[in-house]
Design a protein that fits this description.
With 109 residues, the protein is mainly β. Helix content is 7%, strand content 15%. The radius of gyration is 21 Å and the shape is elongated. The N and C termini lie far apart (88 Å).
C-alpha cells in the first residue's frame, strides 16, 4: 500500500493551509482563528455566534441588520425599536425603499 499524504485543508478567507492547532470549525468549514471574523464589523466569531449567507460569515447582529426585516418595528422587540441598517459598518444594501409612490388628489396643490 503506497503512502498517501493527508489532504491539506484551506481557509475559505485567506486560502492558506489550516493546521489542527489553529483551526476553528464554523459554517461547515475549517478557518484560521484570526480569519473567522464578521464580514461587516470584523468582530471575532465563535461557532455559536456565527450566521452564514452565501459563503460569508457574520455575527448574529450584523446578519440581522443586513438580511433581516427592515423598517419601523423590526429588530429587537417593542422595547428597542431601531432603524439601524448597519450603514456605518459598510452595509450598502438594504436601504428602505417602501416610500409611498402615489399622485396627490386633484385640487390639493
Amino acid at each position: 500500500m503506497p503512502f498517501k499524504p493527508p489532504e491539506i485543508v484551506r481557509c475559505p478567507k485567506c486560502s492558506k493551509a489550516v493546521y489542527a492547532a489553529e483551526e476553528v470549525l464554523g459554517a461547515g468549514q475549517k478557518w484560521h482563528k484570526m480569519c473567522f471574523t464578521c464580514g461587516l464589523c470584523k468582530k471575532m466569531l465563535e461557532s455559536t455566534t456565527v450566521a452564514e449567507h452565501d459563503g460569508q460569515v457574520y455575527c448574529k447582529q450584523c446578519y440581522g441588520r443586513k438580511f433581516g426585516p427592515k423598517g419601523y418595528g423590526f429588530g429587537g422587540g417593542a422595547g428597542c425599536l431601531s432603524m439601524d441598517s448597519g450603514e456605518h459598518l459598510g452595509n450598502k444594501e438594504g436601504g428602505m425603499n417602501n416610500k409611498p409612490n402615489y399622485q396627490a388628489p386633484p385640487g390639493t396643490q
